[in-house]
Amino acid sequence: TRISESDLLKNKGRHLQKNLANSEGVKASYRREKWRSRSMSISSNGNDVSSSGSVSSRSSFSSGSESSDDEDNSKFDPRESEQKNSAGQSDFCVRNIQLCSFGRREIEIAQEEMSALILLRNKLSSERSLAGARILICTHITAQSAVLIETLLACGAKIRVCSCNIHSTQNEVAAALAEKGVSIYAWKNMTEKDFWWCIDQCVAGNFPGDPGSESADAASGSENKNLWANMILDDGGDLTHHLYKNYPERFNNITGIVEENIAGIHRLYQMSRQGKLPAPVMNVNDSVTKTKFDNFYASRESVTDAIKRSTDCMIGGKLVVILGYGEVGKGCAAAFQGIGCIVMVTEVDPICAIQAAMQGFRIVRLEDVVHHADIVVTCTGNKNVVTRDHMNKLKKGCIVANMGHSSVEIDVSSLATNELRWERIRSQVHHIHWPDGKYIVLLAKGGLANHNCSSIPSFVISVTATTQALALIELYKAPTTRYKADVYLLPKKMDEYVAQLHLTVFNAHLTELTREQAAFLNINRSGPFKSQHYKY
Is the peptide bond before 248 cis (omega within 30 degrees of 0)? Predict the structure, then answer.
């Protein structure tokens, strides 16, 4: 039967009306849900620079999460609110506990990409490998770190958690952990004062299930040393330093520390030389699985994404200056080179410099090329590598971003002057205007661009998180004579085990050595396959 053209047009019109109605219904439903999730008293103040010229710490970007722009400028203080989870527990401080359902879904999605860590959880949870461990955790509060936190809980540990970064917390994930009963103190865009308050609450409070754990005076803690923390999982060393400085008796009760960041490792090596470490430290930052996967691959995948999402600019053909050619710098340089940029590198280390040169990058001093740079990215872990003098010479519209851990790589404090005008363009994007009409584009106020303006692949975080979990278990279960109060690299066998767990995702099949081949190399057929000092 032939259908007339007029009938086709009528049917098409009806379908369009139906689709439009459905679309409007979805949008309305979303708006209602969004309004309910923000039922706390949240309002926008619209200012990013105070009258004194100092930069507000409230504006930030959520990496695809419900940590929304409206909350960024909120006058609401989580410390002043009384919140309880569905079990009536209140030993936490988050932005909004009502975001917990959304946060739980984010954690479930992250788990799909972190199958190796879940495999490890399923294997070790029945053994209760961390039963009796009381762990203080200071890390980025994201869906991926939540998977690690819940893995440690499944292994029998008791934990208290705070954030290592004032901008990177996903509020909905923090809410989901609080709803599960985790004692967590973190929210997005906290002030420096809030940051140290949260660390103090994490350090001094009682662990869930302990006598007085729901006491109103959580900071007083328990005087029973058996109820104090005995392990630390840190990212940057702030929690470790705070415990050492303010709670020396509790610090001396620590039996193992796991640190994943170069800034924290530098502090711990210094403490080791001074004989101030109370326990062995596992240096996860310099493990192969961390440096080769988290530092390199995560940076390679996230740096251009952060700039594109934040600025909507075309990156190909731009002149990019990468400061530092460590593993993070290598990843960033490879990303920009692959997208068609002209890449130059600054370095202080001749070995890293010759590596960059052999990859085709020009080795320059920033002051020699600063006038021509379109994008400047710091990857050093050092302070003030981009100074006010450098920024005075940058051309109009130059994008400045930080990919190193330290938030002081860019001298942002020097920009808080009356002669310069800060303009908030969107979350975590500011134009800094000079009197002559020039402006530069500053991402995340000098904080981590990938954590604040983009996202990090869950699979890569799974590699680091699995390494952290195994390091904690190794320190907790090892005989007391195995490790002294010093800083150690992860055993090579453990590095290889982490990599092997993640190979299943790629359906990879390893070749096995014959007995003759293993004897020829003088190694075990099951590994470790390389010496501890081997450079991959």
Answer: no
Separation in Å, CA 331 to CA 304, 327, 338, 377, 535: 11, 6, 11, 12, 17
Phi, psi values for residue 385, rounded to 5°: -80, -20
Distance CA 319, CA 187 (A): 36
- State which H helix or E strand residue 441 sits in: strand 439-443
Q: Angle CA(247)–CA(171)–CA(468) in degrees, nearest 5?
A: 55
Q: Give the full edge-to-edge strand order of the sheet including 319-323.
A: 362-363, 342-346, 319-323, 375-378, 399-402, 439-443, 429-433, 421-426
pLDDT of 133 above 90: yes
DSSP state of 124: H
Supply the angle between the helices 171-179 and 100-113 in degrees, to the nearest 10. 100
3-class SS letters over 256-272: EEEECCHHHHHHHHHHH
Contacts of 342 (CB under 8 A, 6+ apart): 317, 318, 319, 320
pLDDT, one tens digit per residue, over 456-481 is 889 989 999 999 999 999 999 999 88
**C-alpha span between 161 and 141 (Å, rounded):** 9
DSSP lists the bridge partners of residue 344 as 321, 362
Sheet of strand 134-139: strand arrangement: 183-185, 158-163, 134-139, 231-234, 256-259, 281-283, 487-489
C-alpha 299/C-alpha 403 separation (Å) is 8
User: In whole angstroms, what is the distance from residue 209 CA to residue 285 CA?
Assistant: 32
Give dist(CA 48, CA 196) in Å, integer: 22
pLDDT digits (tens, 9 = 90+) for 239-298: 999 999 999 999 999 999 999 988 899 999 999 999 999 899 999 988 888 888 888 998
Q: Are 304 and 471 in contact (CB under 8 A)?
A: no
The DSSP element (H or E) to which 431 belongs, if any, is: strand 429-433
Please enumerate in sequence order all residues whose Cβ is within 8 A of that of 111, keeping only pairs 6 or more positions apart, or say none: 118, 147
Task: Indicate the SS3 state at residue 98.
Answer: helix
